[in-house]
Amino acid sequence: MRSSTVLPFILASLALPAIAQEAFTPETLTTESRIAEGPNVLVMDQSWNGPSKIDVLSADGELKMKGNIGPGTTAQMVLSRDGKTLYTASVYMERFVYGPLKAIVHEWDVASLSRKREFEIPVKLAHVESQPGLFALTEDETYLLAQNATPATSVSVIDLGAGKAIAEIPTPGCWTAIPAGPMSFTTICGDGTLARHDWAADGSFTAPKKSEKIFDADADALFANPVRAEGRLVYLSFKGNLYIVDDSGEAPVLTETLNLTDGVLGKWGPGGSEALAYNPATGKLFILMHAGAKEGSHKDPAREIWTYDLAAKKLVGRSEAHHENTLAVSKGEKPVLFAASEEGNLTRYDYAEEAGEVFLTKAGEFEGLSSFPALITTDF
């Protein structure tokens, strides 16, 4: 019954004259050869089920999207000191769930977001969350250091001039490779020691020089990624202690331990993926902190960002946070902070100092930027 009613209507409609329409003019698409000038913040949106993505945004309060770069799965990144070149290491899986894979280093031009070159490195590259200590440039930017895990740990030394790995340095029981000179790195070990490794241009390397026991992994474990301040390494512990290490000699040496939370009520503790950042111009440390800290809460998002004056050895600021777990700071005289949450929001914080106290104020937000914002870096 319904079909017999609709059919005459359709036939009548087909008999109506066509309605005149304006001529359609297709849009002409163009591509910008370079991103807009100005300082940038780069956010690694790491993926474990497909290509990773690095978003490049303006570093001002607008956090305007300039474009993105696409390396492979479980990507790592490090930016050159001048901010012009980005290096990534990532994995490409032919069939993803089985079969062969390749680990590739890409060299990217930041101004054009274009690939300059690529080359293979050992497939032992660790498939882990993006961290600065797992893929790093040496001081003179001649070599890259890439963390391996099979799960046996080692570090690939990559000669950028030759475009290949020249050495695989075993680091049993240890993790990360923090550059400590033109041809050396420091790594943190599960037995509470740190070790220094050295290599030569021909790929040969010496036995590690291990420190005395510096920390107790059961009583006060350390976050694996330190910052370098005035030539020394500053490690942050799960219980809010700073371990200051001099790794300029033959073996690393603990020089001082400082406590962040003495006299502060509320059982505050650091937490996050990258919970510590350092601005060399001001000598200030910035730490993601949460209240009610307990065993296992070292990944909890931040309720506050604390500012610590390393030279004065005192807490100089406590500012409201927005549930972030990854933090970065610019290098200039007036610090600008960027922090990301597990929800994928990126927040910019402006810095102000008055009468010796530091205030961080929210000055921009990009909601829903990333799925897994594991690492942030700036080019200023």
Q: What's the topology here?
A:
Elements: H1 2-15, E1 40-45, E2 53-58, E3 65-69, E4 73-79, E5 85-93, E6 101-109, E7 114-121, E8 135-137, E9 143-149, E10 153-159, E11 164-170, E12 174-181, E13 184-189, E14 194-198, E15 209-210, E16 227-229, E17 232-236, E18 241-246, E19 253-259, E20 269-270, E21 276-279, E22 284-290, E23 304-309, E24 314-320, E25 324-329, E26 336-341, E27 346-354, E28 357-366, E29 373-378
Number of helices, counting only DSSP H or I runs of 4 residues or more = 1
Multimerization status: single chain
Instruction: Output the structural class.
Output: mainly beta
Quote the average pLDDT: 94
Q: Number of DSSP strands?
A: 29
Largest sheet: 5 strands, antiparallel
Radius of gyration equals 25 Å
Percent of residues in helical segments? under 10%
Query: Which ranges are low-confidence, i.e. pLDDT below 50, for 5 or more consecutive residues?
Result: 6-12
In whole angstroms, the N-to-C terminal distance is: 73 Å
Strand content: over 45%
